[in-house]
Design goal:
261 residues; alpha/beta; Rossmann fold; ten-stranded mixed beta sheet; two-stranded antiparallel sheet; 6 helices; 14 strands
Length: 261
């Protein structure tokens, strides 16, 4: 029988009760979690079983990871710049310090366990900060260093790719995508500034912004700045999730974190 690895998905988006619209048939407004079903469908479509991880007390992180064969760090709000020793920028968006605590602990413990890890958008930033890196807090403030200026906060739907990235040949990301030129979507105003320990940049936008990173001391710790989960209708983007699922199977073997299909 085929086996499907259990892959956790972090959930960093919180909806305050005053932003939740009550319907006559629904429950009363209250604080809620928000996670795009695109993550769930991408992981399921790659042959794995998704497990949504709520932001709990970081003391339970190891117990959560015990049952998993892989981890996807999802997108979400800005990280609190105090996590990388910077003062808040005037254009800093809403932050959730308690969620940051949980996700940074989740990333560090998964990293220490060599658990296969795919980090998306904010997730790539979390991985970078978890390894001691820092972020650009507002990309429009940066001087252009590449061939053209890119709008990293597109207004088009997530299924629409709006700018190219160049992938470094010979990297794990290159092996997954099987190409050095790629079209991606873009929904961020922050990005990696200083790379964390053991991380290398694997892809760049034409304006020089880091669009991909990976750990050189980990079997599978890959981060991308774009929302690949919205683009899995394109085979190259689906291969990121298939790569995570394959790595999770190898990590788990016949033990914990596998479900018979």
């Amino acid at each position: 029988m085929a086996v499907r690895p259990l892959i956790g998905i972090s959930c960093s988006e919180l909806r305050r009760r005053d932003s939740v619209r009550q319907t006559p048939e629904g429950e009363p407004p209250r604080e809620e979690l928000g996670l795009g079903l695109t993550y769930v469908k991408a992981i399921q479509g790659a042959g794995a079983i998704p497990v949504v991880l709520p932001p709990l007390d970081r003391k339970v992180v190891d117990e959560l990871l015990d049952g998993l064969a892989g981890l996807c760090l999802s997108g979400g709000p800005d990280l609190d710049p105090a996590r990388y020793r910077r003062r808040p920028h005037p254009h800093l968006g809403p932050t959730e310090p308690e969620v940051d605590d949980f996700e940074l602990a989740l990333a560090r413990r998964a990293d220490a366990r060599q658990l296969p890890l795919l980090a998306i958008c904010r997730g790539a930033q979390v991985l970078n900060v978890a390894r001691g890196g820092a972020l650009h807090q507002h990309l429009p403030d940066l001087e252009q260093v590449g061939s053209e200026r890119i709008d990293h906060r597109q207004i088009e739907p997530g299924e629409t790719a709006t700018h190219p990235v160049t992938v470094e040949a010979g990297t794990q990301l290159h092996g997954l995508l099987d190409r050095t030129d790629l079209q991606v979507n873009s929904f961020h105003h922050q990005a990696v500034a200083r790379l964390g320990r053991g991380l290398v940049a694997t892809a760049h936008a034409p304006d020089g912004v880091i669009e991909g990173l990976e750990a050189v001391d980990h079997p599978f710790a890959v981060g991308v700045q774009w929302h690949a989960e919205c683009l899995v209708g394109r085979p190259e983007h689906l291969r990121l999730f298939e790569g995570l699922a394959d790595a999770a199977r190898r990590h788990a073997g016949t033990g914990r974190g596998l479900q018979a299909a």
